[in-house]
Design brief:
about 475 residues, alpha/beta, 5-stranded parallel β-sheet, 17 strands, about 15% strand, binds adenosine monophosphate, binds zinc ion
Length: about 475
């Protein structure tokens, strides 16, 4: 598209929009905090990966060679981000009477299925925390003499040994999040575990030998080690959900400062990454996003109810990633209809050979699109530019197809890989198959052609009794839907 790779991104560290200037010319290195695989992700969690995916696609589109790493936390994350409570993985393994390794494998696969269903691109690497324990011990050994102290329960990071601790959160006070009483002997309320020792006389399912005795790494340590190891300090962008801005990322930054032997956050190298980016939350008022509620909002629940997962991706793209997004079934249904409309047009362009050059009349839409994406990933406006192209009349289909393809490469709605039929998922509770519906509809069409309206009405009622609404004259040509 256009030549100038203008891209402005919001840096949580400075709370400002900043032009993207890569550490390594022509490259973009991105680390995304991945899931703790102790349970299924909810759709709010998946918003974080849709955001990271759009960011990666935008960087590729603007011409940068992208290296994206997403981690899988299979050890070390406690039920409380501020380092209190139980290990999430151990707790679930006990509850399900399975080994931690089986729990991790099962929920990693489930997470990857959601990644695929949302058309999120594969990162260059999925880094698995338990593969990096020796590197974590090495990292901890390096910073321990100057930044850590040992207690009976583990090795702790003393946050007073780095300057500007908590600047990312800007909310750290003595009354803040940290629970000094949770661990006896902590020097500062915000100090956190680098290594958690296995209590004497116990054996954990996952534990490793270390200079501080057998135990497991702290969650914050994992991300510092994997991001530094795989991308090199400083790298370009570190992403996560907005909750990570308060504890997890300030702690990573403190470790990175200690490891890089730099202090103060005035130069980018000091925090490990130049830009720290955070997506805001998906919210749902009735508590269905809580993993402790029985039927919580996982992607599979949406699918079981008949909503194609790309409808949820559309819902995410309609909001800016820094705004809260309120989930509702009506909102999801509307997003899915919007996607259907796009796919109907895309199906008409499917046969066309993409043209090499765009038509000058499409230039304004391309420009709007480029500007929107460059303006801190304004996908809401980018979507309208895409719709304007789809709606443009009297263009050669090949010309239109090329432009739509280029835009969809950033938005990732898979417009040419998804058909109308794919979108029409039957809810799990449906008592009739798509084939049966099509068969009844064919008979009804014949009856109407024969002007046998009594039969036509009877067939419509027969379908209605099975929850199928026949949509005569539907402007989207949808013909039927399952209620
Ligand atoms: P976790 O597995 O708990 O570490 O969460 C995975 C990712 O989802 C993290 O980046 C979180 O910040 C993010 N996250 C958690 N809840 C939400 C939510 N309701 N909306 C958006 N992102 C979320
Ligand atoms: Zn992390």
């Amino acid at each position: 598209m256009t030549d100038a790779p203008n891209l402005t991104l919001f840096n949580s560290l400075t709370r400002q929009l900043e032009p993207f200037e890569p550490v390594h010319p022509g490259e973009a290195r991105v680390y995304t905090c991945g899931p703790t695989v102790y349970n299924y992700p909810h759709i709010g969690n998946m918003r974080a990966y849709v955001f990271a995916d759009v960011l990666g696609r935008a960087l590729s589109h603007k011409g940068y060679r992208l290296t994206h790493v997403i981690n899988i936390t299979d050890v070390g994350h406690l039920t409380d981000d501020a380092d209190a409570g139980e290990d999430k993985m151990e707790k679930m393994a006990r509850a399900q009477a399975q080994s931690i390794w089986d729990i991790a494998a099962h929920y990693t696969q489930a997470y990857w299925a959601d990644i695929a269903a949302l058309n999120i691109r594969q990162p260059a690497k999925w880094s698995i925390a338990t593969d990096y324990v020796p590197q974590m011990i090495e990292f901890a050994e390096k910073i321990a003499p100057t930044h850590c102290y040992e207690l009976e329960s583990g090795l702790y990071f003393d946050v007073s040994t780095v300057s500007d601790y908590g600047r990312l959160a800007r909310a750290v006070t003595d009354e803040g999040e940290g629970r000094i009483e949770a661990v006896e002997g902590k020097r500062n309320h915000a100090d956190f575990a680098i290594w958690r020792k296995t209590p004497a006389g116990e054996k954990r399912q996952m534990e490793w030998d270390s200079p501080w005795g057998p135990g497991a790494p702290g969650w914050h340590l994992e991300c510092s080690v994997m991001s530094g190891d795989l991308l090199g300090f400083p790298f370009d962008i570190h992403t996560g959900g907005i909750d990570h801005r308060e504890i997890h990322h300030p702690n990573e930054i403190a470790q990175n400062q200690a490891f890089c032997c730099t202090n103060g956050l005035d130069t980018p190298s000091n925090s490990g990454a130049k830009l720290w980016m955070h997506n805001n939350f998906l919210v749902e008022r009735s508590g269905k996003m809580s993993k402790s509620s029985g039927e919580f909002l996982r992607l599979q629940l949406l699918i079981d109810k008949g909503y194609h997962p790309l409808g949820y991706r559309m819902m995410c793209l309609q909001a800016h990633y820094r705004s809260e997004l309120e989930f509702s079934w009506e909102g999801l249904a509307a997003a899915l209809v919007r996607l259907k409309r796009m796919i109907i047009v895309a199906e008409r362009l499917a046969e066309a050979e993409p043209a090499a050059t765009a038509h000058p009349k499409l230039a304004p839409m391309l420009e709007t699109f480029e500007k929107a994406i460059g303006d801190d990933l304004n996908t809401a406006i980018a979507l309208t530019a895409l719709e304007d192209v789809l709606a443009a009349k009297k263009f050669d289909p090949g010309v239109k197809r090329a432009v739509v393809e280029a835009m969809d490469a950033v938005l990732g709605l898979d417009l040419f890989g998804t058909s109308r039929a794919d979108l029409r998922l039957a809810p799990k509770a449906a008592t009739i198959t798509e084939l049966e519906i099509e068969e009844v509809l064919a008979r009804r069409k014949q009856a109407r052609a024969d002007k046998d309206f009594a039969t036509s009405d009877a067939l419509r009622d027969e379908l209605a009794a099975k929850g199928v609404e026949v949509m005569d004259g539907d402007p989207l040509g949808w013909e039927w839907k399952l209620g």
